[in-house]
Amino acid sequence: MLVETNRLQLSKITLEDAPFILELMNSPHWLKYIGDRNVRTVAQAEDYLKERTLKSYDTHGFGFYKIQLKDENLKSIGTCGLVKRDELEYVDIGFSLLPNYEGKGYGFEASSEIIKLAKDQFKLKKITAITLPTNTNSIKLLEKLGLSYEKRVKPFEDDEELLLFAKTL
């Protein structure tokens, strides 16, 4: 376990979490706001985890973590964490929840703990976040977390314009 709050437990994602990751990556808001990663099987989810999440733990010492509900026998309800993208200067915070768990404060609770870790454990001086201009819930959460809009960016090959938020730690 990485962090515990009143309602949540955050811990590293493992290959055993592939079925959950498959469900999350194919949820409506993931597909709409994060994008279709063409992960359709548990085996593909395992490959995705090996290539992205587990590799990030090894390379950077941090990554995305599973959010689990303490009241529901540690049911996995989403992910939250830090990612260092080659396309961006600073480490990025990100989050995603299964549909039934959105709008209940879990994203704020988990992200607040990740920001504390970014500063205290990982010694980061600044974090950023990117989101689609249409993702109003994500924008509200980023602002509630103390990140401020900085500029519009097109960091990826798809040439899609994203909003970049930042916070000095």
TrEMBL record:
Domain N-acetyltransferase: residue ranges: 8-169
InterPro entries, A to Z: Acyl_CoA_acyltransferase, GNAT_dom, N-acetyltransferase
One Pfam family this sequence matches: Acetyltransf_3
PANTHER family associated with the record: GNAT FAMILY, PUTATIVE (AFU_ORTHOLOGUE AFUA_3G00765)-RELATED-RELATED (PTHR43792), N-ACETYLTRANSFERASE DOMAIN-CONTAINING PROTEIN (PTHR43792:SF1)
Protein name: RimJ/RimL family protein N-acetyltransferase
Organism of this sequence: Meridianimaribacter flavus
Native organism taxonomy: Bacteria, Pseudomonadati, Bacteroidota, Flavobacteriia, Flavobacteriales
